[in-house]
Each structure stands twice: as C-alpha cells, then as structure tokens.
Amino acid sequence: MPSTSNQNTFEHVSWSQDVWLLLAARFVRMLAFGSSSLILALFLTGLGQKPIQVGRFLTLTLIGDFLLSLVLTFIADSVLGRRNTLRLGALSMLISGLVFATTQNRHLLLIAAIFGVISPSGNEIGPFRAVEESILAELVHKQHRPSLFGWYVVTGSLAASLATWLGGFMNNWIGISAKADARADLMRYYRLVFVVYSVLGFIKLMLSLALSKRCERPARTVPCQANPTQGHSDSVANECDPLLPSPDSTNTPAAEIQAAEETFGRSRFVGLCVLFAIDSLGSGMVSQTLQSWFLSRKFHVELPSLGAILSAALLVSSFSNLFSARLAKHLGLVPTMVLTHMPSSIILALTPLPTSLTATSALIIARAATSSMDQAPRSAFLSAFVPSHHRTRVLGLVNTVKTLAQSGGPTLTGWLTDKRSMGWAFHVAGALKTAYDLGLLAAFSAVK
C-alpha cells in the first residue's frame, strides 16, 4: 500500500505535461492581468475621464467579461471543446491589448474591453479559470485536488506580484517622473504595458495549442459508477443513459441549473451563488487597480512605489497560499475558507483609517497574508461535488455569477470617489466580505 500511495503522489505531481502547460498558461495570463491592473485606472484618468466615468468603464469591462465567460463556458464541452475555448480566450487577450496600445478613442477602448479580455482587478476574468479547474480536477484524484489547486493559486499570485513589481520598476528605470513632459511619457508607458499584455496573450495562445486531447471532457460512464451520494434514482438513471443528450438539452441555462441542483439541491446552490456574489461585489469595490488609484489620490504615490507596495502584498499572498492545502486537510474545506478569509475582511474595512502611507501599506500587506488562502479550498470544495460531465459549465456559472456581481463594484467606488468618500468603499467592501464569511460558515459548515 505505501508503494501505491507513493506512486500516485509521484504520478500526480510529475506525469502530465498538460498540468504543467496549464500552470504555465496561468502564470503568463496573470503576468498580463497584473501588469494591466496596476495602470488601467491611471490610464483612463490620463485620457481625461472623471472618477464616475472610470468606474463605469471598469463596470462595463466586467460585464463584458461576464457575458464572454457565460457563453464560452456553456459551450466549452459540447461545441468548442475545452482547448479551443482556452485558445479563443487567449486570442481575445491578444486583440484587446493591441487595441489599448494603439488608440485613444474611448469608444474603441470600451468595445475592446467589453468584447475582449482586459482585467480591471488583476484577478481572473474570462472563461479560463472554470475550464482549467475542470481539466485539473479530472487529471488528479480527489485527495490531491487541494494541493494542486493551492499551487494553481500560488502560480497566479506569484505572476501577478512579479508583473506589478516590474510595472513600477520599469517606470522608474526609464525615468519618466523626472521629465518635464511626464504626462505624455506616462501615457506612452501605459501603451507599452498593453503591448506587453498583447505579447503575453500570444504566448498563452501557443501554450494552449500544445495541450493534449486528455484535456477534453471525458466519457460519461465514470460519473455513473461514482455517484452513490445522489439520492434521486431518476437523476442517476438519466446520467447513465449511454446516448448523448441533444444540444438543446445541454447548452441552456435550464440544463446548467439542473446540473447544479444535482450537486447541492436548488436552494443550497442558489444560496452559495448569493454568498459568492456578495463576496465578489466587495472585491469589485477594492480591486487592485482601484487600490492603486486610492493610494495615488490619497498619498500622491508615484507608480514605482505603487508597484512595490502592491507587489509585496501579492508576494505575501503567494506564499501564504502554500499552507492552505495543509489547513484544509486538518480543518476541512469550509472552516479553512472562513478562518483564513475573515481576518482579511476585517483588515480591509480598516484600511482607509490610517493617515500615513506606511500604516496603510502595512494594512494592505497584512490583509494579503490571508485574503486568498480560501481560493484553493473553494476550488476543491466545488470540484468535489460537481459531476465531471457538468463541471465546466457549473464552475463557469459560478464564476460568471461572481463576475457579474463584481462588475457593480467599480461603479460604486467611482460614485463614492466622486463624492470624495473613496475610503467608504473599503468599509463597505469589508462589511460585505465579513457577511459572506459568516453566511458560508452558517450554511455550509457541515459539508466535508
């Protein structure tokens, strides 16, 4: 038995080229997202947009990401295929970056932001995460998922941290702030960042082209044998039907909701989505680009210092995620999600209170220590209860609900900023995230 265990451990860490390709693709993608999120709000401000206009632009960007994710994850398994979905998303990144790098037309920028892939938060957007997590969940056994998803989160956090630091460093290295025409040079620098964003989209496209057929949806015979927890015999019988369902029955919102109901039941799944929406609304109000904007407005911080502060926060977040899988094994998935996330929610609400940059930066970094430790347990929590043949669409549904809720955050923050009350965005976001933590603990603490 020990030898079998060791063999499995080795197999699931080093055997599959697809796992490493997916991790590399996430690293490249988060490099792009991290680089753009540092400067996006500053770029829009440089174009002459007012705070409320910046907020609306970011909101419309997230709504576009929501629609793109919804469509692509619904058809990833049944029409496009998972690999083609990832390739199409990478192509959208490439095109969006080129548009932002080459035009000042606000309408074209908005079209590229809505129909392409530009991250206003530095976090995941588009169909990528749902598809990749669905693939990874099938490439490893259930007991290895928390560890793999932990490294998946760490990979993204490290990439975002590196991109944020490099963004500030390069700005300082070329000496923009010391020049008389600093504003014009800043705008040229911002466009250079979007050129790099486009190049990273191309690299991600190449990585997606290298994925094997193992990444596609498996045959539907396995879930029938490993579904003893479902208590409805009619549902099990339908899953075991050897005939493929018609496209009309698998690609509709009704089919998506039914798949989720098989997992949690209607009320529990809806409740879970509501909780995720509350958390995501809070995240949208204090995304990385809005934190950068907040520090710039309150303390007149230049881009190199902004990059250093936010990069340090992301770096701390990266290493803290290494411990989430171990905590999940000892405490359980839901307790780990709550106990690591709630302290960061409280710190977030306190962030605007200090009057010095040093104290504010310390709170931002302290919050980062636990703010993302819930991500790997959350991914494992969802993957454990979703049948593999529904996993891509259900995870896609959850992610699109989160993105849609997050899209309202920038507009609220823009409105508060217009009222000279930007600090209240942090207070409200912290309260929303704390409510999410308490609701999750109350409703799902018994789920193992």
From TrEMBL:
Keywords carried by this UniProt record: Membrane, Transmembrane, Transmembrane helix
Domain of life: Eukaryota
Entries under Pfam families matching the protein: MFS_1 (PF07690)
Keyword presence, Membrane: yes
Membrane spanning residue stretches: 20-45, 57-80, 86-103, 149-169, 189-211, 269-286, 306-325, 346-369, 424-447
InterPro entries assigned: MFS, MFS_dom, MFS_trans_sf
Membrane topology: Multi-pass membrane protein
Record's keyword annotation contains Membrane: yes
Listed GO CC annotations: membrane
Cell location: Membrane
GO MF assignments: transmembrane transporter activity
Name the UniProt record assigns to this protein: Related to Staphylococcus multidrug resistance protein
